[in-house]
């Protein structure tokens, strides 16, 4: 069974920290100008990690191999900054018992500053389909989460939509 929490700790959390770090760095380095400057880009990375636990099936571990594609647009304006991105990851976890999980993850990120206000919204969804070594479907797990931060005139408001887990045919 796909362990969403482990996946978030090992991949999505790192990706999000990298995206937010890049957005903050771009904010600090962004020059003020009369006209808006638009930058678009795509960053593709691959990763792997071994020893992932499966909370639904104690005693087995997995190795993940994944590809991540971050597509972004940055707009620098004289009175603010906007960073909008979609971060998509796909991969497979191969478990020590021979089963495997096909995983997908999508984050939509919007970071906007200007005129005394800053907002950050992150909408996250990931899923995993687990199969026997012979390819027979065992289960599906999905996770949805939305985080929203707003700072206006030094006052921070935070809204976390509680994460929603869905399990089909298993744990």
Structural commentary:
With 171 residues, the chain is α+β, with helices and mostly antiparallel strands. It has one domain (4-168). The protein is 15% helix and 64% strand. The chain contains one helix and seven strands; from the N terminus they run αβββββββ. The protein has one helix at 4-29, and strands spanning 37-53, 61-77, 80-95, 100-114, 117-131, 137-152, 155-168. Strands 1-2-3-4-5-6-7 form a seven-stranded antiparallel sheet, with helices on one face. It is elongated, with a radius of gyration of 19 Å.
Radius of gyration: 19 Å
* SSE pattern: HEEEEEEE
- Helix tally equals 1
Percent of residues in beta strands?
A: over 45%
Spans of 5+ residues with little confidence (pLDDT < 50)? 1-13, 22-33
Structural class of the helices, strands and pairings?
Answer: alpha+beta
**Looking across the biggest beta sheet, what order are the strands in?**
1-2-3-4-5-6-7
Q: What oligomeric state do the depicted chains represent? A: single chain
How many structural domains? 1
Helix content: 10-25%
End-to-end separation: 7 Å
Major β-sheet, in short? 7 strands, antiparallel
Form type: elongated
Task: Offer a few descriptive terms.
171 residues, 1 helix, alpha+beta, disordered N terminus, seven-stranded antiparallel β-sheet, elongated, 7 strands
